[in-house]
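Suppose a colleague, Dr. K., hands you the sequence of a protein chain of 375 amino acids and asks what its three-dimensional shape might be. Before reaching for any lab equipment, you can write down a predicted structure in token form. Begin with the sequence itself:
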Amino acid sequence: MATAKSKTKAQAAESTAKQVLRQHAEEQYAHELTALAEQDRHHRPPNWQLSPWAVATYLLGGTLDNGVEISPKYIGNRRLIEIAIATLTTDRALLLYGVPGTAKSWVSEHLTAAITGDSTLLIQGTAGISEESIRYGWNYAKLLAEGPSTEALVYSPMMRAMEAGKIARVEELTRIPSDVQDTLITVLSEKTLPIAELNTELQAQQGFNVIATANNRDRGVNELSSALKRRFNTVILPVPNSIEDEVDIVQRRVTSLGRALELPGETPALEEIRRVVTIFRELRHGISEDGKTKLKSPTGTLSTAEAISVMSSGMALAAHFGDGTIKASDLMSSLVGAIVKDPVQDQVVWKEYLETIVKEREGWKDLYRASREVL
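The predicted structure, expressed as tokens, is then:
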């Protein structure tokens, strides 16, 4: 009896441990990747789990011959994704570039998940990152006891990718100090990583490559050297062209996040999502939707990712402090936090937008009334 109870507790603990907050792409969409692999009859580059055709289908969505639906992970220009995938079949590294919130990291993760089945070989760029994070480190206990040896080496994600013939991801490349950035030059050009302390080197296996991301708001922080730029093929991911595309992106991501976070409220109505996206697009472009009113733009980027965040926050407010249905007051609380980054300049821009657009627009009176309670 006691043994049975122990097993039950162990199984419950294991089940709880598996309820991670955010699954890796290759885990969350494992059924799609498996279905694609079974249907894939196209040529696969060395060490790729799917062909370039299948990778593009995984990113952009479609219906397979066996009826399996592949959900789109990126909604936008198909040619950009094809260029990115084609780059990774060559010896050139890929740099995804654009304004914050244009799905650069999202695309990077899903590309590596589809190509290698492992999106975890990640180097997060920060101002304080060291060379060891890109090259290798040491187990100092072994180093002091035995001196430099292969056993004392601590592999970086870059080294593990080179050894296994997989893809390493470097996030926020322009946040990394210039001298650390240049560590990548030898890796990208020679496809080797010298280990001077052991008088040896690690050579990359077929299939190895690097996907880096950078946003143009960090331009000039740690500008890439021309030598490093030449080793990347740059693909610029733009803000969605149409409001329909942006609404579709926000709706899909908010629905997915709601399920992952197990929020008890209802999924936001399409009309509420459209209102938030419209506000962001008008302030971002500095002109009203009908083209009749010029507007000032706030200091923030007001990206699609921030629109997703606003809707998710609104869902949480409605679920835990309301009746589960998103109302204007739930949206307005999150909108102010997303738009007013500078308490002086952005406050003026936001108040002007409320008076000239929100107050006068038919069907938006509830948003205007809610704004009076927040400001």
